[in-house]
Amino acid sequence: MANSSDLHEQPLALVVDDDLSLRLSMSAALQKAGFAVKEAENGHRALAVFQSCHPDLVLLDVVMPEMDGFETCIALRKLPRGRYTQILMVTGLDDTESIERAFDAGANDFVSKPINWSMLGHRGKYMLRAGRAFQQLNRNERRMAKTQELAKLGNWELDLTNNIFHCSAKASRLLGLGKDKRYLTCKELVSSVVVQEQDRVLEKISAAISSNGSFSVNYRIILPDGTQRHILNRGETFFHENGMAEEMLGAVQDVTLLKNAEEEIRLLAFYDGLTGLANRMLFMDRLKNEISVARRHKRMFALLFLDLDQFKRINDTYGHHIGDLLLKNVSETLRKTTRSSDTVSGPGPAEEDTLIARLGGDEFILLLSNIEVPDDAAVVARRILQEIPRDHNLEGYQISVTTSIGISTFPADGEELESLLKHADSAMYHAKETGRNNYQFYTESLNAEVQERFSLEQDLKTAIAQDQLILFYQPQLDLASGKIIGAEALIRWMHPQKGLIPPDKFIPLAEESGLIADINKWVIQKGCRQNETWRAAGLKPIKIAVNLSGNQFTDQNIIQILQEALEEADLDGGNLEVEITESTLIQNTKRTISILNQMKDLKLKIALDDFGTGYSSLSYLTSFPVDAIKIDRSFVMGCTMSKSNRIVIKAIIAMGHSLGMRIVAEGIETSEQLQLLREYGADEGQGFYFSPPVSEEKFVKLLKKGAF
Ligand code: C2E
Ligand code: CA
Ligand code: CA
Prior knowledge:
Elements: H1 4-7, E1 12-16, H2 20-32, E2 36-40, H3 43-53, E3 57-61, H4 69-78, E4 86-91, H5 96-105, E5 109-112, H6 117-150, E6 153-159, E7 164-167, H7 169-174, E8 183-185, H8 186-189, H9 195-212, E9 214-222, E10 228-239, E11 245-254, H10 256-270, H11 280-296, E12 300-308, H12 311-318, H13 320-338, H14 341-345, E13 354-360, E14 363-371, H15 374-387, E15 391-394, E16 397-400, E17 403-410, H16 417-433, E18 439-441, H17 446-463, E19 469-478, E20 484-495, E21 499-501, H18 503-513, H19 516-536, E22 543-547, H20 550-553, H21 558-569, E23 576-581, H22 582-586, H23 589-601, E24 605-611, E25 628-631, H24 633-638, H25 643-658, E26 662-665, H26 671-680, E27 684-685, H27 696-705
Parallel strand pairs: 1-2, 1-3, 3-4, 4-5, 17-18, 20-22, 22-23, 23-24, 24-25, 25-26, 26-27
Antiparallel strand pairs: 6-7, 6-11, 7-8, 9-10, 10-11, 12-14, 12-17, 13-14, 15-16, 19-20, 19-27, 20-21
The protein binds ligand C2E and calcium ion (2 copies).
One calcium ion binds next to β24.
């Protein structure tokens, strides 16, 4: 609210008296002192004038007809801005009763008749000054109280000469001292602090007194009603000129809400939402801590790195929902396995010595503190392998899964966080390589392998930009005529130091890191352009086949990428075939069918790659617009030796044909194999018997020849 006096450069006075001569004398005296003056002859008039010009000072005669000075004063105070005006009552001499009533009515001061005219002006000016100062103070105090209220702040002082502590009522409440406890000693001050934190608080305060002059300490207190609050207490020491610490001033603040919010955030930040296990961040933090503790106490501990075998395939095949359920099941088993039973069943470490975390995906890690020999870790690993059920019934699906575990121990396998993790990780990979469903300890020789994988992934990031990827082409033939009718584009990486790297070595890496999106796009563009170049050079038009990895297949952009590549190369959609695997087909069925149909709209051919290795059910094929089935190499390879392979091949061909699909045989290496496949009625074939995948240059030569 604005102060009326702020509005007037020259202070304005209102003189109210029914006696004209007195009014004039008072006006003259005030004008002489610098006031502008308005006059009113009675109370009613005074109220009207007040409202129109909001005077800073009102001189009010007590004795007036109709509405006397007291009534007028009370009414004035009730008007807008009436509170801030200085009101001076003019009373009869020594009329003490009037004086009292004047103050009761809200007057600031009084003058008695006869009036000392020369003093009246000064009196008025001083009243204004005092009034302003008072208002300012009032406002500041209210502002401060409001601010403190909002910030849940209370203030205190500590007199260091006698160690007496004095605090505001608010501070006393915040500190849990009760309302009346406003004066107390330092010891009493911390009486409400939770016992474990008392020493820390006292230490902080005395350190501030003796040295650095200020402190800020967070602690918990127990209120008289038993609830616990979080308090932030800050203080600063003030020194006498002689250097002696004299007093300390401070403020306490209730930060409970903040702390609770922090706790919430901590939970979100440190625990895995799916399984409720610790997450990577918390785990790293604990591990760091564990390392320093183990180092100090010369103790041993172990990391168990755990990964579900072929989890990705389960996820791809049955969907993320089922994948999530499996992860929950596994984490539950891990919890149970490392719990109390440990103490009962012997050598393994006890519950509180084990931290289980999920690092992401299907990677779990266990920190086993305080083990005595590496074999303690092996005991736990064996138990986990035993306890995690192989077969899970998840919403009607029967899903079997196994686990691989890698173990590293401190300090033998590393003294730093990174090396311990890396070594547990490579031991886990080793476990996978040695047939899965087992555990392995880290050994020195594993190290190099991991390093290799990591540096390869780094290099791959720049491979496209630096033009290091190339396509090789393997001819695909019409088995009846022996003519080349197509080429499968197969990627290679010409690494500047390591030479030619086959796709098996980097496509899985690319899939894990997401780089596969860029790679597939590149393959599609390059393949389309290449095919068009051959046609433009007058070579016989063929179809080109590209491989699309599963997780890339449902990418939002895949249709757009294909369409743009065709347009850019000016290639007919019928000359492009995409090869996808069975597991790609059966994940996310609705979306897959929609994408396949959009591909068909572009006139593309769709081939099912590696058929026979995955789901291998022909019946579901009827739901998808598939043009060709590629019989996996493993059946072709064994077909001349194994009867069962021959039966499988025959069945695939018969069923495929009945669905109107072309049958392509992959990996034909011998004339016997070729003979058999021809006999069974396979339509197309590819394999080393004709040609391995070759460079562009060599492929053009084969294409010119035209047939085998
Ligand atoms: P795939 O799609 O099954 O490709 C056929 C693989 O079999 C090729 O291996 C090829 O060289 C090999 N092969 C062909 N004929 C014979 C034979 O007669 N005998 C034997 N033993 N092998 C034969 P490559 O080029 O090493 O590719 C391996 C896999 O890498 C491919 O399997 C495919 O899954 C993946 N791949 C290759 N290029 C790409 C690509 O551009 N994108 C994606 N996403 N994956 C690719
Ligand atoms: Ca393929
Ligand atoms: Ca294949």
